[in-house]
Design brief:
The protein has about 180 residues and is mainly α. The chain contains seven helices and no strands. It folds into three domains: about 45 residues; about 45 residues; about 55 residues. It is flat. It starts with a helix and ends with a helix.
């Protein structure tokens, strides 16, 4: 449309040309951004309610923490379960951080979760050792596959760079021959 208005020839009327720095203005906000803007606008219009809500949420969190501490002190049978829950939650956070940053594939953290077996009553510790040994083997195998993928990607880049270079030289030679 922009090209048609400017009178450019060769551009179909449905073509939209974007000047540098104008692309951000053309794309509107996503649905979740619009929803968040509406929510934030509502909270800004109701600031007294927002302050009270934040205060109530903070008080409720501290009361819940105190209640959890009381349960932890008074009921020893919950201690082991809470300890396991806290460790698993920490493992979940670590799993998310490692996988989200694309440091490793999702396969490795799932193996870590599988390897982080909590020793239960009657469970043989050698089973845990076997799981850890299997996890170590899978991690070594995964790292070897990653090295192969990196090597193959490097060789592909070199190969296609050479193909591009040869085709560019041949194109220039053909163009020089045609122009003579």
């Amino acid at each position: 449309m922009e090209a048609a208005r400017r009178g450019r020839s060769g551009a179909p009327p449905t073509t939209l040309t974007v000047e540098p720095g104008q692309g951000e203005m053309l794309a509107g906000p996503e649905w979740w951004e619009r929803l968040n803007a509406r929510r934030m606008g509502w909270w800004q219009r109701h600031q007294r309610l927002a302050r009270r809500s934040a205060t109530a949420r903070t008080v409720a969190l501290w009361v819940a923490l105190a209640g959890l501490l009381v349960v932890f002190v008074l009921y020893p049978e919950f201690r082991a379960g809470l300890r396991v829950w806290l460790w698993l939650y920490g493992l979940l956070v670590a799993w998310f951080m490692v996988s989200r940053t694309k440091t490793v594939s999702w396969r490795v953290p799932t193996g870590l979760v599988r390897g982080a077996v909590v020793q239960r009553e009657g469970e043989d510790p050698s089973d845990v050792r076997a799981d850890i040994a299997e996890l170590r083997h899978q991690m070594e195998k995964g790292l070897a596959e990653l090295r192969v993928e990196i090597r193959d990607a490097k060789y592909d880049l070199i190969k296609w760079s050479f193909v591009f270079w040869v085709s560019a030289v041949l194109s220039i030679a053909a163009l020089a021959r045609v122009l003579r």
